[in-house]
Design goal:
The chain starts with 11 loop residues before the first helix and ends with a strand. With about 500 residues, it is α/β, with parallel strands linked by helices. The chain has helices at about 10-20, 60-75, 80-100, 100-110, 115-135, 180-190, 205-215, 230-240, 255-265, 290-300, 320-335, 355-370, 400-405, 420-425, 445-450, 485-490; strands at about 25, 30, 40-45, 50-55, 155-165, 170, 195-200, 225, 245-250, 270-275, 280-285, 315, 370-375, 390-395, 410-415, 430-435, 435-440, 455-460, 475, 480, 495-500. It is globular and about 70 Å long. The protein folds into two domains: about 10-275 and about 480-500, Aldehyde Dehydrogenase, Chain A, domain 1, CATH 3.40.605; about 280-465, Aldehyde Dehydrogenase, Chain A, domain 2 (3-Layer(aba) Sandwich). The chain has a seven-stranded mixed β-sheet, with helices on both faces. Strands 8-7-6-9-10-20 form a six-stranded mixed β-sheet, sandwiched between helices. A two-stranded antiparallel ribbon has the order 1-2. Helix 8 (about 230-240) packs across helix 9. A hairpin with a 2-residue loop joins strand 1 and strand 2. Helices cover about 40% and strands about 20% of the residues. The protein has 16 helices and 21 strands.
Length: about 500
């Protein structure tokens, strides 16, 4: 693992940002928690405290929801034209680009991800997401509908539909892509005219709080976006259950997603969920082997494996199995671990001690159940929550490392003889259905396999390609609904039918 000697110098603005306790954004004002409490935020590379943020509770959530309700029902926000709203969202995207380095440094410091990735992917994709949805504000249309009413002969009707914002939205985001997940939630809700209460992950709240400052700078009216930091039980649960919230959007684990559904059931608020995955990545023997090695390694090791769609089950046709697996293992051996703020780092730490222990527990479980780690299989170094990139072989379908989401840099490689129903059944044989990959020169075969996989996204000869225009979501227990693309507008709108007799 690389040492911290090459860690970049933080921007003065970043040092200033983390030097003072960060507050909630409620009703356009930065306010302390109702309890007056704060909690520490840690650098996962050093285990040191880097900042303190307000520790929210149900009272803070209630204040934020009421502020969002006021902003939705009255004031300037509901009276803005679609074009005015779009320009405001576009301006926010511009501001993210202007503050790219600060946001990238906060993301790397807080989450542990490599600074080069935060600069190249997380921050630009966040800006692009806002600017993509800025274009949708003027394009949300209803329809006119011709009616044939048998019990009203001779009557003439004018019938049409309106697409309207769903209202006040509670949004709970995860820690693996803190800024980008905030953008995925906020941008379509802004575009449709909703108001929001955003609850960032307690492990990684800093970039969302800086984003709150940029939202104010972009000119959004008070109360349109409210940000409350805190822990799941004290802030997330009250938000999901709050009667003043019209819709909950959640990204995170399937286990917590089920709790969200239960909390929302009392008043039947709308719910969208982007949850866990255990994605199969299928490599056929006719593939360009070197490209497949690099691509399948990236599918699992990108973002330290802390990616809901990570290609964590690698199915390789028998005649190239050894070559591909050894190639992926070599990729793993050559990954440079280190602090995210070291420009030479290719993989940072797990985000927290809890996640570190979870991943290490799966490494132990894999070994105990008979899987063999041909590379990795252990924690790495002393300080910091580092885990070695790991490739397991000799697995069986019922092993934990095959069936359960690890959310770390751990892949299980599995040989297969031919593409048949048995392979497809095994690829589909988990509770999840978020993503999948297919690697082959036979494009007809690739599309045939893609059609049979129960997954919301199937990548062919590539992996981890995201774009604001491309819908993303899961089958089975990987979630409800689709984020991104025009499909995301459905999550934050509802249709009204209007019928008039002429």
């Amino acid at each position: 693992m690389s040492v911290a000697a090459n860690v970049i110098q933080l921007e003065n603005t970043v040092n200033s940002f983390v030097a003072e306790p960060r507050k909630h954004l409620i009703g356009g004002r930065w306010v302390e928690a109702a309890s007056g409490k704060t909690f520490p935020v840690y650098n996962p590379a050093t285990e040191e405290v880097i900042a303190y943020v307000a520790e929210g509770n149900a009272e803070d959530i209630d204040r934020a929801v009421k502020a969002a309700r006021r902003a939705f029902e009255s004031g300037p926000w509901p009276d803005l034209t679609p074009a005015e709203r779009g320009k405001m969202i576009w301006r926010l995207g511009d501001l993210i680009y202007e503050h790219l380095e600060e946001l990238a440094q906060l993301e790397s410091l807080d989450n542990g991800k490599p600074i080069v990735i935060a600069r190249a992917a997380d921050v630009p994709l966040s800006a692009d997401t806002f600017q993509y949805f800025a274009g949708w504000t003027t394009k949300m249309e209803g329809n006119t509908i011709p009616l044939s009413v048998p019990y009203a002969p001779g009557a003439t009707f004018h019938a049409y539909t309106l697409r309207e914002p769903v209202g006040v939205v509670g949004q709970i985001i995860p820690w693996n892509f803190p800024l980008l997940m905030a953008a995925w939630k906020l941008a379509p809700a802004m575009a449709t005219g909703c108001t929001m209460v955003l609850k960032p992950a307690e492990e990684t709240p800093l970039s969302a709080l800086l984003l709150g400052e940029l939202i104010q700078e972009a000119g959004f009216p008070d109360g349109v976006v409210n940000i409350v930091t805190g822990f799941g039980e004290e802030t997330g649960a009250p938000l999901a259950a709050h009667p003043g919230v019209d819709k909950i959007a959640f990204t995170g684990s399937t286990e917590v997603g089920k709790l969200i559904v239960k909390a929302a059931a009392n008043d039947l608020k709308k719910v969208s969920l982007e949850l866990g995955g255990k994605s199969p990545n299928i490599v056929l023997s006719d593939v360009d082997v070197e490209s497949a090695i690099v691509g399948t390694a990236g599918a699992i090791f990108f973002n330290h494996g802390q990616c809901c769609c990570a290609g964590s089950r690698l199915y390789v046709q028998e005649d190239i199995f050894d070559q591909v697996v050894e190639g992926v293992a070599n990729e793993a051996r050559n990954i440079q671990l280190g602090p995210g703020l070291d420009p030479n780092t290719q993989m940072g730490p797990m985000v927290s001690e809890i996640q570190f222990n979870r991943v290490c527990g799966y490494l132990d479980a894999g070994a105990a159940e008979g899987a063999k780690a041909i590379v990795g299989g252990h924690k790495s170094g002393g300080k910091g929550y580092f885990v070695e990139p790991t490739v397991f072989v000799d697995t069986k379908p019922d092993m934990k490392v095959i069936q359960e989401e690890i959310f770390g840099p751990v892949v299980a490689a599995i040989p297969f003889k031919e593409v048949n129903d048995e392979l497809i059944a095994e690829a589909n044989g988990t509770d999840y259905g978020l993503a999948a990959g297919v690697w082959t020169r036979d494009i007809g075969m690739a599309h045939s396999i893609a059609a049979k996989l129960k997954a919301g996204t199937v990548w062919i000869n590539t992996y981890n390609i995201f774009d604001p225009a491309l819908p993303f979501g899961g089958y089975k227990q990987s979630g409800w609904g689709r984020e991104m693309g025009h499909d995301a507008l459905d999550l934050y709108t509802q249709k009204k039918a209007v019928c008039a007799m002429l």
